[in-house]
Each structure stands twice: as structure tokens, then as C-alpha cells.
Amino acid sequence: MYTYVCCRCTNCTAQIVLENREDPNLLHRPPRPRAGREACPYCRTVFVPQSYYIKESVAPLALHA
């Protein structure tokens, strides 16, 4: 199982993977907030992620960097 900490761009709502958590014990801790701002790889808008969520998948997510 693949586990990712994700957020959504506040401009285009694209899903952005912030962290790949392969260790199942890490799921018991809250996501680590990132200092500063994120740049969306799709629309290039710079924003401050305000909410995080966990996404699990049986296959790796297709990551576009």
C-alpha cells in the first residue's frame, strides 16, 4: 500500500503530493506542516497549503513534476 500526504492547490484545485509515507507507523502522527509556500506544478501559482489529507493507493500515484 502506498500512502501520501497531499494538499490541493488553492487556485486550480490540483492534487499535490507533499510527502510519500512508506512507513505505516507514520500514519499515527499528523502530517508535518511545510514551512513557507508551495508552488503548484500545474498552474505555477504560489500558495500556502492550509489543509492536508492522506491518500492511500494500491499502486503508486502518477507524479508529474
Query: Per the principal axes of the C-alpha atoms, what is the gross shape?
Result: elongated
* Helical coverage, percent range: under 10%
**What percentage of amino acids are in beta strands?**
35-45%
Can you list the strand order of the major beta sheet? Answer: 2-1-5
How big is the Rg?
Answer: 12 Å
Count the E strands: 5
Nearest-integer average pLDDT: 77
The secondary structure category is mainly beta
Main sheet: strands, sense, barrel = 3 strands, antiparallel
How far the N terminus sits from the C terminus, by CA atoms, comes to 22 Å
How does this structure look, described?
The chain is mostly beta strands and 65 residues long. It has strands at residues 2-8, 15-21, 38-39, 46-47, 53-57. The strands form two sheets. It has a three-stranded antiparallel sheet, with no helix packed on it.
In short:
This protein has 65 residues and is mainly beta. It has strands spanning 2-8, 15-21, 38-39, 46-47, 53-57.
Question: Any chance you could write out the topology, listing elements then pairs?
Answer:
Elements: E1 2-8, E2 15-21, E3 38-39, E4 46-47, E5 53-57
Antiparallel strand pairs: 1-2, 1-5, 3-4
Question: What keywords describe this structure?
Answer:
65 residues, 3-stranded antiparallel sheet, elongated, 0% helix, two-stranded antiparallel ribbon, mainly beta, 35% strand
